[in-house]
Amino acid sequence: MPKDHGIGASSKRREDVRFLTGAGNYTDDINVHGQAYVHFLRSDAAHGTISNLDTSEAARMPGVVRIFTGADFEGVGGLPCGWQVTDRHGEVMKEPAHPVLAQGKVRHVGEIIAAVVADTLEQARDAAEAIVVDIDELPAVVDMKAALEEGATRVHDDLADNLCYDWGFVEENKGAVEEAIANAAHVTTLELVNNRLVANPMEPRVAVGDFERGTGNSTLYTTSQNPHVIRLLMGAFVLGIPEHKLRVVAPDVGGGFGTKIFHYAEEAFCTFAAKALNRAVKWTSTRSEAFMSDAHGRDHVTRIELALDADNNFVAVRTETLANMGAYLSTFAPSVPTWLHGTLMAGNYKTPNIYVNVKAVFTNTVPVDAYRGAGRPEATFQLERVIDKAARELGVDPVELRRQNFITEFPYATPVAVEYDTGDYHATMDKMLELLDRDGFAARRKESEAKGKLRGLGINCFIEACGIAPSNLVGQLGARAGLYESATVRVNATGGLVVMTGSHSHGQGHETSFPQVISEMIGIPEDQVEIVHGDTANTPMGMGTYGSRSLAVGGSAMVRAAEKIINKTKKIAAHLLEAAEADIELKDGTFSVAGTDKSVAWGDVCLAAYVPHNYPLEDIEPGLEETAFYDPSNFTYPAGAYACEVEVDPETGHVSIERFISADDFGNVVNPMIVEGQVHGGIAQGIGQALLENCVYDENGQLVSASYMDYAMPRADDLPHMASYTVDHSCQTPCTHNPLGVKGCGEAGAIGSPPTVINAILDALHSGGHKVDHIDMPATPARVWAAINGQ
Amino acid sequence: MYSFDIERPTSVADAVAALGADEALALGGGQTLIPTLKQRLASPSKLVSLSGIAEMKGVSQDGNTLRIGGGTTHASVAREAGAFPALAALAGNIGDPAVRNRGTIGGSLANNDPSACYPAAALGAGAMIVTDRREIAADDYFQGMFATALEEGEIITAVTFPIPAKAAYMKFEQPASRFALVGVFVSQGDAGVRVAVTGASEGGVFRWSAAEEALSGNFSADAISGLSLPADDMIADLHGTAAYRAHLVSVMTRRAVAAAG
Questions:
Q1: Which of A135, A180, B119, B143 has the fewest CB atoms found within 10 Å of its own CB?
Q2: E strands within A309-379?
Q3: Is the pLDDT confidence value at A122 over 90?
Q4: Does domain B166-260 have CATH number 3.40.50.1000?
Q5: What pLDDT score does B11 carry?
């Protein structure tokens, strides 16, 4: 019998009732009395000097409250970067100023030149058209290789060149890796591109700045995954507002996928303008604005070498990557190609020698930062693609080549600075193969061939580092923040309780899964537990939601706080039952004295805490409210084995995903239904990256794929039918260092699926006699057809 | 969008009169015009909505001719044009349900987007474009990307199709927009064989005469197996090179012929 509540139950997502009935409260639903609207005049040039900016006529247009330009922000801080990478020469990264509004120069299409605040949005747009702006265009820096050439146009005049940093990891391993490659029996080399993506959450970004003259308090309502981080960054580094005078609220948020982690200029502007004007200011991004102002993802160009000995054991991996930073450093941009990427280059394998080099490059494009998976998909893609290529070159089974190199003993310290606490890669491989029915593939291929299609099977393994992150470790690595999480558990007098968490739910279902944990611990119904999140005014300082961290880190903080509550209620129960505290047991919401029939209900104990008439006031305080901060001692390491079967139409190059199978090890699972939904969604995004999505700039820095007419998002009919789409999480090696034994599931699908799909396409092409080594993502029909035809 | 006046006439005559105003534009289903207005790329003084004109709606059959009102939505054509299954199928595969319930055949043909489906059907079936003032043969109507024989203020009131003995439309979708990267409509009827191609050419929808000739003697996919088009005038963009589009025209034509049986 599956459980119907608590840990392991597929409790229905309670938040969906409001989302599906139009009762959600998104930022755009928030309207402050008397608010004005801002329209941003954005650069249509990729790179240039603003030679003339005249707002005088526009300022006289109907309804205009005020027009702001860079001049209004001269004394205001720039947008800060939350991570500082130290490069292989011991130098810290180059960190150019990141102005809220352009200061005399524009560096990407979409950069804000002026902000028009008016009584209505249409008036603001009308006035923006009356602004006179002349830009003396400069050559656009778009291609990363060209950007690093001697004499290339510089994105930032005050920097020596376009190289943000040249990172080597682990630098001391470099010589040993070179030697291992030189002496290897076989070396497989692959050059590839990890395509640039636009996250495209269903809800575009929104910001509403408000200012209360009576108190001098500022409030920002924003579409954020981490309101406390925004409060800290914006308050301390941009606007100089102390945190106690600044409240940041991120209400219902319609998807984040990473791009809503970062602190954006529009948030700072609305908060600044509301104070300057003593009037609330609202901005709602259009979809077109989102394409040119939301941080993009991925965009790596990589050369990887895999060296093997004569027995096909991996002896070394060396990889060189160019990572696009865009025009400015977004909040966590420097960490993505380095610490979220280099540390994963061991994958599931016991390769002894690994060296990673990353050159981060400034270009005249939108800033690039974390997107679902962030660094880990880039690591997995290159490693698993080069392994697949090696298997083909060596004529060995790609499953067996992986198996023979699997890490099998834990804990395992990789040569790239992390220690895997636990895992069982053979188990996930076995489960995947069982679900796959590999023996039946030949018959399925024949069926496809009878229809004129080529069928391919791709398999893939991956590991990720989630549960981000141990603060002392990331501090050494360059993080300018801690990455703990917090929770306050407030029990009310009648026994119901509220968990105020620093984690933020924007689709993950925390409002359902967190109460399951409390229900399991205390034995009260899930509906006695309410989750409060997203408001700095009523939650403890938290670092927010990303990196598959909420349950592993935020959930652990909640467990710690709940443990404090349970300890206290046991003391109260012992007093009420006139027994020793050590004899008190809590089960199914009832405290009892071991070995007796004496008991008292959870609710009566809670009531006693708030109506302390018969209460040990000399020993413990009344009330029931506890806070815990949890800092993980290690990352968690979810891992999995994926398989995909595709059909390729050799006449058109069209690829259809016929089957997809994932076997994941997420450790313990709190809500299987939510986990499966997360994996389905992650795989859909991974298939989107593999087959459809591509953010393209032309040589002038113009964004070619600037709308859904040209940027292809995955749709239901791009995915396999649910009956052919199996997500399994039955292999469970619990995390050894957090109280729930959970690892995190949010990013797995997006990490594991892209190489699976590409491996399958190449297998299909080879079955048709097309000796294609690699196809860059997205494998569009045009690209597959060109590869088949040698074009 | 910029502000504008709107009129909702209930007859073609009133609509024509309303369109006499300076910078007035006809509004069909709005699937192109409304996004254009929202992006402030057009600033008409007045929109004349055609959606309230009952005489421009509906599908009717007269012998071997199918008449579709210019204001008929794609969804209606998909439902009601069963006498011409290839046309009904084409309409049922335009865009998504929201597009099909708003977009109209007249609007699509008046706009003549080089990647739209209906121009291929009109040209590939030898339709007649009926306006408030005349009838225009499809062969004379399409004049290049977004260009047609329509005069200022002229309204497509209906489109008449001779129902062919055999017909099929094959669309290879552009992955993002789902418009035709290449779409080919083939028909065989009283007027012979017609092959019309949308999505591929810089010149908009066109007839592939070499394929028509080859198929006239032998209406089978084999008859055109070696036939290809030069890539010279094909569209090249991030979704496909000119050579790829030229290749797809051959593939989709063969598949359309095979499907038409």
A1: B143
A2: 314-326, 353-362
A3: yes
A4: no
A5: 97
